[in-house]
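re the bet — no i am not wrong, look at it urself. input seq straight from the record:
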Amino acid sequence: MKKISYILLFSLFALNTNSQNLSNLKTKKPITNVFAEYSMLEVEFFKNGESGKFRSRNISSYVLGFNANIPLSNKLDAIGTIGMSDGFNYNFLTASLAYNLSSNFGLFYGIGTYFIDDHRWVPQGIDGNEPSNNDFGMNFGINLMLSNSVGLTMKYNIIEEKEEPEISSMSINGLSFGIIL
């Protein structure tokens, strides 16, 4: 998974080398948006902690958050996101790079920290270490701006990666659709 992340980052920078006309960049200003999403998560967890039965559930969740979009060049933007979720409760802080294919359509890839605060998520410490509700995750997707103030987003979230079935480790992955205001 780490190799894929490096390849995506390198590809974004390589595609961006031809778009270094910075004269238009001076007129671009950072943009702050509010977004709302509907997430369909596949969550694998132990009911009642480690002694419980291993479960796999599809859980719907509603996400509300803020984006700060900072132009780096004509084609590349940095996006900072903070948000919270209800349904499967977690808070997150992510940083993304967006490659703009046109003035209203772009692809993005980001990484971030997730604080999982759901009653179904009971982490277990590994090798005697203390368990933590903080997780490192990533997301990627597309943004389509319908006008200057309204847009659509679709992303895939990998908060805790799935491992081999015989390990029975907990995982959270899912697809989300949303609106940007």
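see?? The chain has one helix and eight strands. told u. also Residues 8-23 have pLDDT under 50 and may be disordered. so pay up
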